[in-house]
Design a protein that fits this description.
Blueprint: H1 12-30, H2 36-55, H3 59-63
Length: 75
């Protein structure tokens, strides 16, 4: 009984892919392969990828009416 109900619009493959990409960005930044402004921007993107992977909802998908989720949710 949450205050906000977020309808999932991402499939598990989409969520896992975003998680892997975020992990690669974080590792490249920590090891020094990515530096400066590019590192900062990509780390912010990685944070967004992690957040959307956890929630299963991508705001851009809502904006463009995309739904990769195979299972119909009751939300």
């Amino acid at each position: 009984m949450g205050l906000f109900k977020i309808k999932k619009n991402m499939d598990i493959i989409d969520r896992l892919l975003r998680g892997v990409i975020a992990l690669v960005i974080v590792i490249l930044s920590i090891t020094g392969v990515l530096t400066g402004t590019a590192s900062t921007i990509l780390l912010i993107l990685a944070g967004v990828f992690i957040l959307t992977s956890i929630t299963g909802n991508c705001p851009l998908y809502v904006l463009f009416k995309v739904n990769t989720c195979r299972v119909k949710t009751k939300n």
